[in-house]
Amino acid sequence: MTVTINVFVALLIALGLSVGVFLVGGRHQESAATALASAEASLATVRDPAARQSANATAVRWEGSLAPLCRLLSSRTASVEQALIRSMSLRLTLAQRFIPVGLFVVTLGVLGGLLRRDRARDLVLYSSVTYSYVGKFLGLSALAYCVFVALSPFAPALWTLYPALGAAALGSATCIANLPPRI
Predict the structure, then answer these.
(1) What is the dihedral sign for C-alpha 96, 15, 6, 178?
(2) Total number of domains in the chain
(3) Above 50 in pLDDT, residue 26?
């Protein structure tokens, strides 16, 4: 139950950061144009033309969904708002491509933690509740960072999702490996 609450809180923090960056960071025409250029450059890195067209079509659908929400949150000029919405939709679409890799890497981390947990159950190794909480914090922070990168038009580059997913795997492995043996 507490893991569910922690995941929910981490996602709310990431969403709050994304909305905050959207409201504060996008007041200038240049920053909106830079965010859009960065998102368009990320789309250009998709090698397969059919996949690029599919990603573009998905981004257009996201634009339709995000436009009413963004109009509620800000009172910008139409061109700045359209650039930010396009940037957000492209980043969200491209970040969705990381979901299978992310699930695989985090699953590997969980399996690695379970393997180490067997040693703790056999009393060969000591399990630490502190390390378990640190691992949970690391994993949830990494997942919140991934949501922030996907939702914010001014976030770091999408390639930073790879180290974040590695940190999430390391955190999940540490959390599960160090749980007390009787849980």
Answers:
(1) positive
(2) 1
(3) no
